[in-house]
Amino acid sequence: MFLGENHLTGVEGLEVFQRLSLLNLDRNQIRTLDHASLPPSLHTLSLSNNLLNQFPWEFLESGSRVSWLYLRDNFINTIPLYNFKNRKKIDKLDLGENSIGQVSQVLFNGTLQVRDLNLELNKLVSVRGGVFKGTELGRVYLSQNRLKSISDETFIGVEDTLEYLDLGGNQLQIVPKALARLRKLKYLYIPSNNISRIDNDTFDNFSSTLSALSLSDNRLEAVPFEALAACKKLSHLNMGYNHIMQITEEDFIGLESLDTLLLMNNRIVELHPNTFRQTPKLRELSLSFNKISAIDLEAFTDVQDSLESLEVSFGLYQEEFPEIYLKPLKSLVWSSLYTFKNLQYLNLDGNRITHIPGGVFHSNIHKELKDIRISYNHLSIPRDAFQNTKLERVDLSNNDFVVVPSGALGEVGFTLRLLDVSYNQIEHVDATMFPETPLLTGLNLCYNKLTTLADNVFDPLTGLLRLELCGNRLRTNYKALLNRLSSLRELNLGEVGLRSLPALPQLRHLVSLNLSSNALTDLSVGAIMSITNLRTLLLSKCRLAAVPQVWTRLPLLKHLDLTYNPLRVSFTYFPFKFRYKNILIQNLVT
Q1: What PANTHER family does the record tag this protein with (predicted)?
Q2: Sorting pLDDT into bands at 50, 70 and 90, what band is 152?
Q3: What was the pLDDT predicted at 328?
Q4: In whole angstroms, what is the distance from residue 522 CA to residue 500 CA?
Q5: Residue 45: which domain range?
Q6: Rounded distance, CA 344 to CA 332, Å?
Q7: CB distance 322 to 336 below 8 Å
Q8: What is the mean pLDDT of residues 378-407?
Q9: 173: exposed, middle or buried (C-beta count within 10 Å: 0-12, 13-18, 19+)?
Q10: CA 371 to CA 382: how far, in whole Å?
Q11: What is the domain count for the chain?
Q12: Which pLDDT band, with edges at 50, 70 and 90, does 567 fall under?
């Protein structure tokens, strides 16, 4: 039963639903919970985003069978020192986004067994010893608190049960010694702290079980290879957003099982020969946002058969496409990519690449390649660059294209679904550019130099779901332009120079319309009649002095943005307020 997003201040009479297993009361105004009004059959109870200021221990004591209890985003500031008469067991307890400042005693004196405990986004400064004793915790989330220290005895009692620990977004300067007690830990996340060193024995006690480790956004200057060497089962390692200046083969000794390696946003300037020799199963590698200016020809040789995803956006300090360095990669495709036969995703955003050589992506090698992103470069693309590929998404935004590279895109053909050529210098688009890509579902032409569009330019794209034309000063017949796009769901006409809402064809599937940053002073009822199924309407930064009288024609509207308009009416003017989820009216002129 879902009763969320109402104005309930309490619940009464629900006890009659003797077989009710799920009750959602999120986003109401409930301050207290009358446990007698709830059926004992509940398996899941969600009270997130209410006004509770006390933990509802009476409900748990009452004989409830609840297994999942969500109390997120309330005003609970303490966990009561309460002994349940009969030991309770609960699978998931979510107390995130409350005001809990400390857990000073053993949680519920050890009378509540909790498999999954979420205490993220509270106000914890420290965690004392033994607080989880008797809980048999499997997963605990302590991220986004104010933790500066954790007692060495914190995890007494859960040494052999705790498998997942999240300490991200705190103020820790070292990896807590309390972790040395844990013997079954599989997932350890300590991102966004102030850690500058990792002791060699930090992971010793759970090195045989550790599968995923995140140390991102700390102050590490090198890969802690001595601490990691014994972690034979580690498959995911995130060391992004640190101060690492160099990586070598020795940094990854012992990590034969590594599947994902994230090193983005460091200070790496060079890739040495056989850097990844110790990681023969590596499928995903991110080196984005570094300053790599030198790459040895043998840098990627050892992952040529395994690598599927390579990200080096804003990471290369050179103007030529790095074909020669990528040549060993059998999962990355083109003569330098010819060795990257399993490559599915390639991100080269934000480098200084001016040219992609023809034939760099080979249809017989790169059969799995689906997604290419080469934005923020200075590209020219030959016609055969994507020949016979099966790409589904191509991002060429923020380059210097004067025309859509339709010849190269036409070689992709029927598989292409999403095309982004926004933020270029494109001045002309016509109907000859899309016949070879008729199955496009998303097209972004925003912020080019388009001024006119022929009526038939989008006629081949009858399955288009999202069209973005914002930031072009267009003079066009929108009714004719969009006439064949009957499946369109999202239309962005922000900042296109409109002074009134133009006549549109019948777009029965259109649910989102962006008209922001135009010179609109009103919306006519007649113009709205063809788009009556809208759920989202964005009208920010227009010239509306009054709220348009179109709401009765938009019965499904849920999200309305009127920010930065010279409106001279109060919020009480809005009819049908009860049905809206979001009404934004900042900068209202009163």
Answers
A1: AGAP008170-PA, INSULIN-LIKE GROWTH FACTOR-BINDING PROTEIN COMPLEX ACID LABILE SUBUNIT
A2: very high
A3: 44
A4: 7
A5: 1-66
A6: 8
A7: yes
A8: 84
A9: middle
A10: 18
A11: 1
A12: confident
